[in-house]
Design a protein that fits this description.
The protein is α/β, with parallel strands linked by helices. 36% of the residues lie in helices and 19% in strands.
Length: 177
């Protein structure tokens, strides 16, 4: 019917679907470009099929350290998945044919008065350094929105983000954006 590209994303982890690998393979066999957004925990299981058939793969990490990852992306087991995710991405970078991205969604916690208590934004430059060092093609920072679709923003948060992004600029080169 003329489909040229698909993105496997959202509503949970796409790689958890029992037919994920088959879908990626079939899309590729039919010249349908495939993009995947994943949390990276199951990447090892689908390493070969994704490395050989995905136009791009983006991992939602949202941290640059195990401590921040554990605070904002805790696992049901209580054990941080950060080392697993980073190791999976590093291995993927060695074998990929398409692009690999490191995604960082700004996440923050506020008290009852609406004051910023904690944010992962202070970990942006750490994450960008890891992304470059493990072989990602790009690093992206995305704002977050509240349930009413308003931007989660305070002047303090904005200042943290601006400062962190300025420190990331020297990391950019011909192979990393």
């Amino acid at each position: 019917i003329g489909v040229r590209a698909v993105v496997l994303i959202g509503g949970g982890e796409p790689m958890a679907h029992k037919e994920f690998g088959n879908l990626v393979r079939i899309f590729s066999e039919n010249d349908i470009h495939t993009g995947v957004t994943t949390n990276g925990t199951l990447l090892k299981k689908h390493m070969e099929v994704c490395a050989n058939n995905c136009s791009w793969l983006r991992v939602s990490v949202d941290a640059g350290s195990e401590e921040v990852f554990q605070e904002f992306r805790p696992h049901a087991s209580g054990k941080s998945q950060f080392p697993t995710v980073i190791k999976n991405m590093e291995e993927y970078a060695k074998n990929k044919k398409g692009k690999l991205g490191y995604s960082f969604l700004i996440l923050s916690k506020y008290n009852k008065e609406g004051e910023l208590v904690s944010t992962n934004a202070s970990d942006i430059v750490n994450a960008a350094n890891i992304a470059r060092d493990i072989g990602c093609d790009y690093f992206e920072v995305k704002p977050s929105f509240d349930p009413f679709h308003f931007l989660n923003d305070t002047s303090n948060l904005t200042n943290i983000i601006k400062s962190q992004l300025e420190m990331c600029l020297p990391l950019q080169d011909d192979t990393f954006k």
